[in-house]
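[step 3/7] fold_predict: job queued, chain A
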Amino acid sequence: MSEYVITLSPQTHQTLAQLAQMTQQTIERIINELVAQPMLYIELRAGVQGGEPCIRGTRVPVWVLAAMHKQGDSAEDLLEAYPNLNAVQVYAALSYYYAHRAEIDAVIAVQNAHHRQFQGEDE
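[step 4/7] structure written:
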């Protein structure tokens, strides 16, 4: 099994510490559960964002968060950009991305090509 290193900001660490205390778990266990079961927070529904993986109960596609993350945005930046999401959802999306990296990177590439075409950059 691959091992990932996740660096948490003080704010995220504090949020996870509070969640750990409320659920009587360790931060490591919460993160491990997220990594092991991102599908609890990710869904694929026909007719929603073209059937692409989204945060469960929202229309926020995983590829959007992954693209922002690839450009250097932290989990805190993603939470700021999407205040309707919580840290668990964001980390689940990033976990899903790393578990399905080739698939999500392909979606990002297609979306970038569509954006360039729409902007007239491919003419």
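[step 5/7] annotate
The chain has a mean pLDDT of 85.
The longest strand covers residues 42-43.
exit 0
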